[in-house]
Amino acid sequence: MWMHNGNIGGWKYIKRNLAVGLREKWFGSVGGNTDSEWAFAVFLDTLDGMGYDPDSASLNQSGFGHSVLRKALLGTIERINTLIAEIPDTEHKESDEDLERRSLLNLAVTDGHTVVCTRYVSSMTDEAASLYWSSGTSWQEDKSIKGRYRMERRDKGADIVLVASEPLTFERDDWVIVPTNSTLTIHKQAVMIHPIIDRYYNPNPSYTRSTGFAVSKGLDTTEAKERGE
């Protein structure tokens, strides 16, 4: 299962080279024209190139493992970034002088055993679209308010882990923010957060990024919510 929330920068300029770089099997698997579909094909091709067959029957028993899925997802982002960086300045028309090269790549993939998500923007100065997670022992409807749910915690265990672009309940303390340019991995109900260390990585936890880009794409950011924007 695959999910993409966001956009790929310079899409119309990289689509052809992205497609050409795929193995025939994954090129032929794409049935549409959206950047999300082609990004999934890049992920499958990356996994294949690492020596793991996405169609392997043995996946039903064990999956790929969280390290493999995370590495393939990071490889997908790297391939997309490389293609965008290779767009010649002379290729786009004068009307596209302000060609948007930044990508918002909130991705999620699962092999049925592990879930790996990213909260990512290809920028040193911008904030990624928001992403949260919550865990507990059960997800229950509030008996006093129909249609309202909350995460219950009867012990320290985590039988349920939810990931969402925005908190699904009014109990904000139940939700943990995934930092910009990070991966979130769920494996056997354990949650792991890893920074994505590439050219857009900033190790300073107090570094302030702009919310404008994600908001301009119709996506919320954690920081915009906190500032009331």
Commentary on this structure:
Helix content is 28%, strand content 22%. With 229 residues, the chain is of the alpha+beta class. The model has no long low-confidence stretch (mean pLDDT 88).
Essential attributes:
three-stranded antiparallel beta sheet; 10 strands; 22% strand; globular; alpha+beta; 229 residues; 7 helices; single chain; five-stranded antiparallel beta sheet
Q: What structural class do you assign from the helix and strand content?
A: alpha+beta
- Percent of residues in beta strands: 15-25%
State the helix count: 7
Apparent shape: globular
Relative helix content = 25-40%
Produce the secondary structure layout:
Elements: E1 2-7, H1 11-20, H2 24-27, H3 35-49, H4 59-62, H5 66-85, E2 104-110, E3 114-119, E4 132-136, E5 138-141, E6 149-152, E7 160-164, E8 176-177, E9 182-187, E10 190-195, H6 212-216, H7 222-227
Antiparallel strand pairs: 1-2, 2-3, 3-9, 4-7, 4-8, 5-6, 9-10
Helix pairs in contact: 1-5, 3-5
